[in-house]
Amino acid sequence: MGQYTEYEINQAIEAVGKGMSLRKASIEYGIPKTTLRDRLHGTQPREIAFEDYQRLSIDQEAKLAEWVRIQHALGLAPIHQQVKVFAERILHAMGDTDPLGKQWIQGFKRRNPSIKVQRSRPIDSRRINGASTEVIRDWFNLLAIPEVKSIKPSNRYNMDETGILEGQGSNGLVLGMFEMKSVRKKQPGSRAWVSIIECISALGHALDPLIIYKGKTVQQQWFPLDLGPYKRWQFTATENGWTTDDTAVEWLQKVFIPQTLPQGKEEARLLVADGHGTAQHKLELLQAQVASTAARKRRAVQLDPNTKFANIKDIQQAQIEAGEKEDITDGFSVSDLPSEAESCIVVASGCS
């Protein structure tokens, strides 16, 4: 049989006490028949029988397990070493200064099945702190506004920023609640080293991402020779690798407007952006940019890869100049600002 908890054993014992057969209770609750029989005859649980051999008492471990669950709920699920350090501090307060053994954490998890090892998914601390019930409820009230509800799902888009921190993977193993499949773990801020602006529609249509590096210009040595997988991606650089107001406006011009043109020119589009940091100011700039582009006609702009967005052709050209490639068909990209930008774009700020 598989793993079972003390609670399930007690449930099986209670069922037998109410008249259920030992065999049926064993099958229904997943408890080995011999284990259930021994417990009915007064055998103590393993944890109690061997409590004298444990460094922490059952009550102390139960409180430590509850602390892990609370930290999980706060978005601060601890790693193995943090739990071990916490346990050793409890021992030190009792006068026990010997370190815990290498297998202690495994025994702790076995004795406390309410927690388990899970893979964490980093989430910006501002998102957890700003995600109150009241804020979320008010946000859905905004989505119920008739003008918003009338926008087709295919024209509803959500843009967001994420980041990749050099030398740190996106997933890590932590301890959390047994009943949860994954853990969201706070991190100081998600836009570090390389930022990514991503956008997707309510029907799952993803726009090309914008990658923002930290630096004065986009450098060809940052990219592999095979640029095929990144053919439609856009690249730029800012002083700190974060999104700037100018970058946000240019993303609207070069990515959002051209790639979200509705079938009908009179159809509105909804762009949902988070309200963290300077996002509200960026949204004001985006709205102003939509108004200013409405009267413009199509015009071709030759991009400078050192100051504007750099796409794959720009990068390939830089690689040729660096001697990494031999031929290219077109060294610079041509970008059109669509006249269809005059179709209404509704910009909304998300939870803050």
UniProtKB/TrEMBL annotation:
Residues 48-118 form the HTH CENPB-type domain. This is Transposase. It holds the Pfam family HTH_Tnp_Tc5. One of its GO terms (cellular component) is nucleus. It comes from the Eukaryota. One of its GO terms (molecular function) is DNA binding. Residues 22-42 bind DNA. InterPro entries: CenT-Element_Derived, DDE_SF_endonuclease_dom, Homeodomain-like_sf, HTH_CenpB_DNA-bd_dom, HTH_Psq. Its main location: nucleus. It is found in: Nucleus. The keyword Cell membrane does not apply. It comes from Colletotrichum tabaci. Residues 1-46 form the HTH psq-type domain. Keywords: DNA-binding, Nucleus. The keyword Ribonucleoprotein does not apply. The lineage of its organism: Eukaryota, Fungi, Dikarya, Ascomycota, Pezizomycotina.
